[in-house]
Amino acid sequence: MKKNRILAVVAATLLCMPAASTTFAEDHQHTWDQGVWTWRSNTSAYVTLTCTEDGAKQLSAGKITVSQQPATCTEPGKTIYTASTLFDGKTYTDSREVVTSQATGHNWKVSGWTWSDDNSQATVTVTCQNNTSEVRTLNAEVRSDVVEEPTCVDEGKTTYTATAKDPETGKSYVTFKNVTTPINPDGHAFETGTWKWNEDHSKAQYIATCLLCGKEVPFDATLTQTVTKEPTCTEEGEANFKATAILDAADPEDTTVQDETTGAIKALGHDWQQPTFTWNADKTKATATFVCARDKSHTKVVDAVVTSKVTKEPTASTTGEKVLTATVTLDGKTYSENQTLSLDKAAKSSSVSNKQATKATRVDTVDTGINTLTGVYASVAAISAGLFVTLRKSKK
Ligand SMILES: [Zn+2]
Ligand SMILES: [Zn+2]
Ligand SMILES: [Zn+2]
Ligand SMILES: [Zn+2]
Which letter, b or e, does each residue of 256-267 get, where b requires 16 or more Cβ atoms within 10 Å of its Cβ? Predict the structure, then answer.
């Protein structure tokens, strides 16, 4: 009976006409309410429309759409059925939801830890794996444990452990980090040590030994000396040497160590002044006599090497000139003196000079033993010219 009635309603809807009903007035303009939906199942529904003045009528859903809404962290998954029907230019609609799955709940995972500079505070950031736009930051409690104390030579080690509890889930997150701590700023503790002097007492070191680590550390000392016996040119003197080392520049008062010893001071060595040159008669030899500035009784005579150079050749009308240089070297220093001699005019002819030169060379060889000069024209000329003058002088 009921079934037949509904079929009639559906037919009426399809014809876009009110269902045939004897209770409805012919010339009456109906005023329908919002309608009341009835679901027979998820795929079957009808709406009951009631006129404010006369009877009610039922219309089957013209269309039922189905949509799925997946579960989220906080909302369950649903299937939504929406029924709608068009009547008299107006659409009537209704929805019902059917829960198909539970809300998934969050799935928090650590995405990173942040520590304060001094490691006294830390926070953890957790991100929901189901929806990465869900991010939370939780404060952690930090505990520090000294694993190794620093010493004067080795760094120490401290472990910081951070624990963050999520009040929402009760879950705890834990991380830790190891931090090296700097070497004990007080450094070594020195109480003993030994002194080391070099042979001439020009340098001293204090070798300090650390009580804590046993390491030996050298400290350069500053030195002062008090002469107890003055040295001379040739004899050593004697002095009292005092060494002072500061083991900690920040606390010199309590960390100064001293040592004293006596020792020799090197002989001074002579302080030679500019020498006096003594030449032989023909200026072929010279000696240099040195006198010590500290004691005039200290003298030294050194044979000089004599070289000569004609600086101006004689001509028939003018005299020539040559310079003799005596050179000595003493204690790595070179001293020299020049003697200038004038050379006679070349006179009548050069043949005389040449003869003299030849003769002089021979004489020179005999007298001085300088053989190697013979082949060098300039030197031979210089020596022969010199001898020529000498010979001339000796004739007087
Ligand atoms: Zn009506
Ligand atoms: Zn979530
Ligand atoms: Zn030490
Ligand atoms: Zn001297």
Answer: ebebeeebebee
Distance (angstroms) between ligand 4 centre and the Cα of 299 equals 8
Q: With cut-offs at 50, 70 and 90, classify the pLDDT of residue 25.
A: low
For the chain, the domains span 2-101, 108-181, 192-265, 270-346, 349-396
- Quick: pLDDT tens for 343-368: 988 865 443 343 333 333 333 333 33
Between CA 110 and CA 119 the distance in angstroms is 19
Q: Which residue type sits at 313?
A: E
> Which residues are CB-contacts of 59 (< 8 A; sequence separation ≥ 6)?
9, 12, 13, 35, 46, 47, 49, 85, 87, 92
Helix (H, G, I), strand (E, B) or coil at 48: strand
- In angstroms, the CA 348 to CA 371 distance is 30
Rounded to the nearest whole angstrom, what is the distance from the C-alpha of residue 152 to the centroid of ligand 3? 5
Alpha helices in the chain (DSSP H): 2-14, 350-368, 377-395
Per-chain residues with Cβ under 5 A from ion ligand 1: 28, 30, 51, 53-54
The answer to whether the CB of 315 falls within 8 A of the CB of 343 is no
Instruction: Determine the 3-state secondary structure of 205 from DSSP.
Output: strand
Beta bridge partners of 87: 90
User: If you average pLDDT over residues 220-231, what whole number do you get?
Assistant: 96
